Amino acid sequence: MTATPVRPSTVDGELFRRLHAAGVVVVTAPGDPPAGFTATSFTSVSLDPPLVAFSLSRTASAWPAVSAADHVAVHVLSARQERVARTFATSGIDRFAAHGDWRTGPEGVPLLGGALVQLVCRVAGQVTAGDHTIVLATPLTGGYAESGGRPLLYHQGGYADLQHRWTQ
């Protein structure tokens, strides 16, 4: 079988956005008001000990609260939560009022209802990387929706749904 060749192009921000594929999360942090933002940069870093990471632009409206937070929550969104992703990606609005379905959880972090997975994490460190900061965090508590469901994905500059699931 012959592989289809990839035609290389110079990668700028717009091309990178179209090439990038990832799961969609909303990260929330305590504050007055609380902060939250949509991210596609969430990843696991280590299993022993458990460690995750996400990145955020230092010019983002959520950055001051996230940079000062000792704890954050990460919400892996379900395929039915595209509206939540869009709400927490919109600037200039009260994202929590627009969303409505949230409560204050452990360590004061805002917890969103309906997420596929929810992790409350202690911030373990921050690393400057380009115009973003990578936040490393240790999951303290976590859970997943009993109803299951498929994750919301981001690919080719838009939201997508996982069509197939292969078994191990």
UniProtKB/TrEMBL annotation:
<feature type="domain" description="Flavin reductase like">
    <location>
        <begin position="17"/>
        <end position="161"/>
    </location>
</feature>
<dbReference type="InterPro" id="IPR002563">
    <property type="entry name" value="Flavin_Rdtase-like_dom"/>
</dbReference>
<protein>
    <submittedName>
        <fullName>Flavin-dependent reductase</fullName>
    </submittedName>
</protein>
<dbReference type="Pfam" id="PF01613">
    <property type="entry name" value="Flavin_Reduct"/>
</dbReference>
<dbReference type="InterPro" id="IPR050268">
    <property type="entry name" value="NADH-dep_flavin_reductase"/>
</dbReference>
<keyword id="KW-0560">Oxidoreductase</keyword>
<dbReference type="InterPro" id="IPR012349">
    <property type="entry name" value="Split_barrel_FMN-bd"/>
</dbReference>
